[in-house]
């Protein structure tokens, strides 16, 4: 087994607080919209978004 990393820095026109909220706390709504070929949907199975929450990531067929 190997670990491959692709570090990348991108400048964005929003505050770090807003970017964190989008990519960490709201990623379940954003990722399927920005990567529809890779992620079909993300469903909440259990919890309210806090510790112990379970989300299911669904990938497109093929």
Automatic annotation (TrEMBL):
**Family (UniProt):** Belongs to the BetVI family.
Q: What is the lineage of its organism?
A: Eukaryota, Viridiplantae, Streptophyta, Embryophyta, Tracheophyta
Q: What is a GO molecular function of this protein? A: signaling receptor activity
Can you give the residue ranges of the Bet v I/Major latex protein domain?
A: 1-59
In Swiss-Prot or TrEMBL terms, this protein is called: Intracellular pathogenesis-related protein T1
Q: Name one GO cellular component term.
A: cytoplasm
SUPFAM superfamilies the UniProt entry points to: Bet v1-like (SSF55961)
User: What is any Pfam family matched here?
Assistant: Bet_v_1
Query: Which InterPro entries does the UniProt record give?
Result: Bet_v_I/MLP, Bet_v_I_allergen, Plant_def-hormone_signal, START-like_dom_sf
Signal peptide residue numbers: none
Q: Which GO terms describe its biological process?
A: abscisic acid-activated signaling pathway; defense response
- The residues forming a coiled coil are none
